[in-house]
Amino acid sequence: MLVLSALVMTEYAPRKLIPIVVLSYLFAVTGIVMVSVSRGHYTVDIIVAYYITTRIFWMYHSMVANASLKEFGPTNYFTNVCWFRLMRFCEANVAVGKLPKHYTWPLPFPRRWQQSRWEYQN
């Protein structure tokens, strides 16, 4: 979960928050080392979990970023992935390419949090 958090921070955080991205990677590495040292899992388990997490994350983002990978076709081998139809359904109304990094305060209260300082653009 820590590795996934670090990947999400890398992909979606604006450039102003690079120290937080680095901190999330430090937490991920620390968590991996602590699980290894505490002998909670075998080292092979940790390596396989890291490999699966990063591959699924980057595979999903590659599929979303390319229009040709969202369509069924004889040369699109991503259609064999078990969650391909779910991805197409969830991403049906999303524009192709990288989404802008624009954040706003989601709640109608308190008003002081709605100032433009919370809007990050990259």
Task: Describe this structure as you would to a colleague.
- It contains 4 helices and no strands.
- It is mostly helical.
- The radius of gyration is 18 Å and the shape is flat.
Helix content: 40-55%
**Average pLDDT score:** 81
Low-confidence stretches: none
Rg for CA atoms: 18 Å
- The total beta strand count reads 0
Going by helix content, strand content and strand pairing, the class is mainly alpha
Measured distance between first and last alpha carbons: 26 Å
What's the overall geometry? flat
Q: Give the helix tally.
A: 4
- In percent terms, what proportion of residues is strand? under 5%
Major beta sheet summary:
none
Element order: H for helix, E for strand: HHHH
List keywords for this structure.
mainly alpha, single chain, 4 helices, 122 residues
Quickly describe the structure.
This protein has 122 residues and is mainly α.
Blueprint of the fold:
Layout: H1 2-12, H2 18-37, H3 43-65, H4 84-90
Helix pairs in contact: 1-2
